[in-house]
Here is the input.
Amino acid sequence: MKIILIIIQSLDGFINKDQKDDLSWGSHEDKVFFRTLTKQLGTMIMGSNTYKKMPAFALGKRFSLVFTSQPEILRPAKAENIEFFKGTIKQALNYLEKKGIKNAALIGGGKINNQFLQAGLVDELYITVAPRIFAKGINGFGENKLDMKLKLLDTRQLTQDEILLHYQVLKE
Amino acid sequence: MKIILIIIQSLDGFINKDQKDDLSWGSHEDKVFFRTLTKQLGTMIMGSNTYKKMPAFALGKRFSLVFTSQPEILRPAKAENIEFFKGTIKQALNYLEKKGIKNAALIGGGKINNQFLQAGLVDELYITVAPRIFAKGINGFGENKLDMKLKLLDTRQLTQDEILLHYQVLKE
Here is the structure.
């Protein structure tokens, strides 16, 4: 299965200033990009904090798998086509592959992104770099040491100040 | 005085993996860019840890002001035209202005970058984004919360995988 990590971050690598951050510092153009690519991929994989922050309308028209140790707390789901998954990332991928899923967007948060990268399961990244510096916040790639090498595939300006970087993860 | 912050960071905002990091993950092209721009500006401002990491040849042909609470420990200087400064950043800028200095490169580390940004003293940033993810390390903008807005001035590919982002700091 091909897994594409998609996040918007500040220049210094934060996906949220704090737990209450509503991402209002991201552009409309980035939201359109996110919606278009995730619909095209058809499946989104996320952690429970990311799920809790997403408005219901941002979850429609694609399948979502939400990692959680407490599915009962998240039910009922905010939208159709959402499954809560209690288990390891390998178990989740086996499950998705059995469903015939070939492509998925990994959309955070940092902890789950870190686990997927650590396990060598991420193929590409789309990182929107917002024109902001926070110095403190929630890291988009978690907190466990990684040493990933990337290949820059292309770049695109989403707005006058916001740039989208598209990378392939190099596997050694 | 115009102050331009120049750093190379991983995609996730780290300027060093750890204290021993020798920046070998940065490109030759970035080093050439750094050398050219800092020589052109004529003055470099840095903290003592950054100074300690810099080879003597990287300090030649421009004036350097090194912040330190213990100048005696750093003497003798590694190269000519280096001054050790014990004092606040405002005192240092007064001192540089009295010397007739109009432009300076602020080259780290994170702590001093944070202080200059917090004080509204940085005009522009040149951030080289290396194609790496570390998840853990030393942040290029320090650890005290900031909320800076930037304007993207231009971008340049330094190598196939390394991109240089040039921003203006918006002052409110």
